[in-house]
Amino acid sequence: MAQRPPSAAVLVLHGGRETGTEPPPPGLLNLPGTRMRPFVRAIGRAARATGGNVLVTQVRYAHRGWNGHRAHPFHDAVAALDALREEAGDELPVVLLGHSMGARAALRAAGHPLVRGVVGLAPWCPPGDPVTQLAGRDIVLVHSNRDRMTSPQATQSLTARARRAGARTCMVTVRGGDHAMIRRASAWHRLTTGLVTGLVGSGSLPGPVGEALALPPTAEATEGTLDLDLDLGPGPDPGRFRTRTRA
Q1: How far is Cα 57 from Cα 68, in angstroms, rounded to an integer?
Q2: Taking a C-beta distance cutoff of 8 angstroms, is the pair 134, 166 a contact?
Q3: Within the chain, where are the H helices?
């Protein structure tokens, strides 16, 4: 029996280094790639539970680092999107899920015609990075308030800049987390699974996230920033959330 073509796809981009022209180590030795495997499994399970045929796959990097203007992971992401477009056609909706450097690559590659949205975890958001390519996309960035590797303040600033450029944006703060998403790992996994499946159409976004995405371009950065515990208390199942309105 012929395999059904995917109805949507999620491309996962792991973290890396600021510089490094060597390829990532293979298999489990590639710790940033290994860290993303639980996300891949959780999203795949959640999509299958709803009957969706969603392709979930990790992007392979040729180089370990971003490497300045060469922006190697960005080009790897675009190449993966081009290959997917050639195989599945122009109408396949894609959500990019990236961590740290991978989130930076996902944001940069979001202008690709297939991309509908980006979920960035502990993203690396330098102030000068472009945002015009995010117009018309749904962008949800998740950051710990205790991250010491990448800046949650820079992430909040990017959500506001991108909204003014025509994107629909939201930031979620994970209190007490860390850059590697080891602390409060189950919360990271549940939240991310709900966000990705919601954006890809295999589930529903948490209400407050949808409200933040609908904010006008003139909204302040703080208006589009949610607190995981106050606004999105995670329920027992991936992709399901209790919603709570602030007093």
Answers
A1: 26
A2: yes
A3: 31-35, 37-49, 72-88, 101-109, 152-164, 185-200, 207-213, 228-231
Report the C-alpha gap between 85 and 227 in whole angstroms: 36
The CA distance from 68 to 37, in Å, is 27
Q: What is the pLDDT of residue 202?
A: 82
Rounded to 5°, the CA angle 204-238-99 comes to 90
CA 35 → CA 46, 94, 167, 181, distances in Å?
A: 19, 21, 28, 9
Residue with the bigger pLDDT between 126 and 247: it is 126
Please state, in angstroms and as integers, the Cα–Cα distance from residue 197 to each residue in 27, 150, 227, following that order: 26, 25, 20
Rounded to two decimals, what is the model's pTM?
A: 0.92
Q: Region 212-235: what's the mean pLDDT? A: 89
Token pair for residue 164? 């003014």
